[in-house]
C-alpha cells in the first residue's frame, strides 16, 4: 500500500488561506483519483481546511506545535513542513504501508502511482525524473524531461522502512533534524550511498504548480518555460493528474 503524506501550512502564515485551501482541494482530489483503491492520504495540518470534497481514505491529523513564524520564513517554514511530514510518517504505520510519498499541498500526482507501487511492493522506491510544470490558468503544460526531483518536493516514493524515522520523535527540533524529509533532491544520493538505490519512475509522476504565491522558496530557473516542451493541457492530462481549474481567480493566468 502507498500512503501519501501531505503537510499543509497553517492559516497564520498563509498569504491567502482561501488560495491555500482551494489549491489543496485540487491536490487531495488528485491524490484520491488513484486507479487502485489500495492507498491512504494523511493530511497533517494546524487547522482542518473547509472543502467540499471528502473521501474515506483521507485522514486529517491536526498538530499542536507552534506554526512557523516570520523571523526566518524559509527555515521556519521548512522546519514546520518537516515536523508535519515526520508526524504523518509515524501515523502511517497503522496502515502497514509498503511505501510512502510526501506531496506538496498545491501539486498534483498521477492517478497510476498506487497501482504501480502495489505491483512492485519490494522495491526500495522511485524518484520522479520526468514530470510536468504548470502555471495556474494556462492552457499549456510543460514537460520536464529529467531532474524533476531536483525541482519539486512531490517527487520521492520511499519504501517505508527507509524513511529513517527516529525511535523517539522530537518535534521541538530545528531545520537540521528534518533535512532528510525536506531536502527532496538529496534523498536519491543518500540512499545510493547506503546501497539502497531508488529507481526513476518509468512515467511522468507529478505536476509542479508554480507561482501560486505560497511557495517558501523560488529558484528563478523553476519559473522558466521551454516552448519546445510545451503541451496542450488536454482532457487526458487533466484526468490523469486531476489538474482541473482550482476556481481561484487570485492566481496568475498565462
From TrEMBL:
Domain of life, per lineage: Bacteria
Q: Fetch the InterPro entries from UniProt.
A: Nucleotide-diphossugar_trans (IPR029044)
Designated name of the protein: Glycosyltransferase family 2 protein
Source organism per entry reads Atlanticothrix silvestris CENA357
Amino acid at each position: 500500500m502507498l500512503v501519501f503524506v501531505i503537510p499543509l501550512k497553517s492559516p497564520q502564515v498563509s498569504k491567502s488561506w482561501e488560495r491555500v485551501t482551494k489549491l489543496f482541494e485540487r491536490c487531495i482530489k488528485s491524490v484520491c483519483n488513484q486507479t487502485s483503491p489500495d492507498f491512504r492520504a494523511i493530511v497533517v495540518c494546524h487547522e482542518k481546511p473547509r472543502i467540499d470534497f471528502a473521501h474515506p481514505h483521507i485522514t486529517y491529523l491536526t498538530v499542536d506545535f507552534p506554526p512557523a513564524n516570520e523571523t526566518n520564513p524559509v527555515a521556519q517554514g521548512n522546519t514546520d513542513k518537516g515536523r508535519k511530514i515526520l508526524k504523518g510518517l509515524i501515523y502511517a504505520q497503522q496502515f502497514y504501508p509498503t511505501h510512502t510519498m510526501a506531496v506538496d499541498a498545491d501539486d498534483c500526482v498521477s492517478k497510476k502511482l498506487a497501482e504501480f507501487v502495489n505491483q512492485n511492493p519490494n522495491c526500495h522506491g522511485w524518484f520522479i525524473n520526468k514530470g510536468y510544470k504548470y502555471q495556474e490558468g494556462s492552457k499549456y503544460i510543460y514537460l520536464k524531461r529529467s531532474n524533476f526531483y531536483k525541482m519539486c518536493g512531490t517527487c520521492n516514493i520511499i519504501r517505508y522502512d527507509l524513511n529513517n524515522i527516529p525511535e523517539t520523535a522530537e518535534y521541538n527540533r530545528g531545520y537540521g533534524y528534518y533535512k532528510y524529509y525536506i531536502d527532496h533532491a538529496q534523498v536519491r544520493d543518500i540512499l545510493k550511498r547506503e546501497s539502497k538505490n531508488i529507481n526513476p519512475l518509468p512515467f511522468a509522476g507529478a505536476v509542479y504548480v508554480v507561482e501560486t504565491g505560497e511557495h517558501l522558496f523560488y529558484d528563478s530557473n523553476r519559473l522558466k518555460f521551454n516552448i519546445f516542451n510545451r503541451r496542450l493541457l488536454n482532457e487526458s492530462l487533466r484526468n490523469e493528474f486531476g489538474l482541473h481549474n482550482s476556481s481561484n481567480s487570485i492566481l496568475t493566468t498565462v
